[in-house]
Design a protein that fits this description.
about 170 residues, Alpha-Beta Plaits, 5 strands, elongated
Length: about 170
């Protein structure tokens, strides 16, 4: 790889990570070409950007970014590395978890969500079980609607009882 190609690759990685709030680093090692292609397709369908990168270039790109110190992740940059960037915090984790129902890989190396780092594949279950913003809002709306439904139901029952008593 020439120096120009490295500079271009680092810039592409920086562009991908620039405003990312959800960054996963995974190992696709052990996946054959067909499985890797299938994994990429599934990531694309879920609006997760996936890029296989060289470890040294990924680290250099992260070091050049302003705002976030990714140094906690650097120790995981060994072997085959793919970065996954998404909008939904648990999206990449769920993708990896579901894909692993068929194969031992991909494996989670590390992840960065908002302000928190997760290092190691043992965090995959925790990350997959995180609730997305949309799921949390849905639960809150459901909780807020529940008492209202109970009150309306009680009022309707009271009206029915009055009607039956008047007859």
């Amino acid at each position: 790889m020439t120096k120009e190609q490295k500079v271009t690759a680092i810039q592409e990685i920086k562009d991908l990570l620039q405003d990312a709030k959800v960054v996963y680093v995974a190992s696709l090692e052990g996946l054959n070409a067909a499985a890797t292609s299938d994994f990429r397709r599934q990531a694309f369908k879920q609006n997760i950007k996936l890029k296989v990168v060289k470890n040294t270039l990924l680290q250099k790109a992260m070091e050049q970014l302003d705002g976030t110190d990714y140094s906690e992740m650097y120790e995981t940059f060994k072997g085959n590395t793919a970065i996954m960037v998404g909008e939904i915090a648990n999206g990449p984790a769920k993708l990896i978890k579901n894909f692993r129902k068929k194969a031992a890989y991909p494996a989670l190396k590390s992840a960065f969500l908002g302000d928190t780092f997760y290092v190691g594949d043992e965090n995959l279950e925790t990350l997959a079980n995180l609730k997305s913003k949309e799921e949390m809002i849905g639960e809150i709306i459901g909780l807020l609607q529940s008492p209202l439904r109970n009150v309306l139901s009680a009022l309707q029952n009271q009206d029915k009882m009055k009607e039956e008593g008047a007859e």
